[in-house]
Amino acid sequence: xxxxxxxxxxxxxxxxxxxxxxxxxxVLFSGRTCIVxxxxxxxxxxxxRIVVLQQGRILEQGNHDELMENGGLYSHLYTSAxxxxxxxxxxxxxxxxxxxxx
Length: 102
Prior knowledge:
The chain has helices spanning 15-29, 41-44, 64-70, 73-83; strands at residues 3-7, 33-38, 49-54, 57-62, 95-101. 14% of the residues are buried. It is globular and about 35 Å long. It has a 5-stranded mixed sheet. The protein has one domain: Rossmann fold (3-Layer(aba) Sandwich). Helix 3 (64-70) packs across helix 4 (73-83). By secondary structure, it is of the alpha+beta class.
């Protein structure tokens, strides 16, 4: 398909399985527009554009590096998730992140 929509494709799986799925998705994403809805920020880290929503409104958008530089919600959530990654996988609730690959 020209457009592919994935809604929480990597939810409820372990990190090892997520990495395997991410490798397969890179092949699947090639040559099409993909909209990925995810709470796991690692799932969308490599997206061309990430749109961060809060209460149904666009809060910020950009690629991973731009959003990290801005120091907004995405940066806070990503940093928090990776700071505690060694102890547990952090589930982000209350906000949705959408990524578009073109």
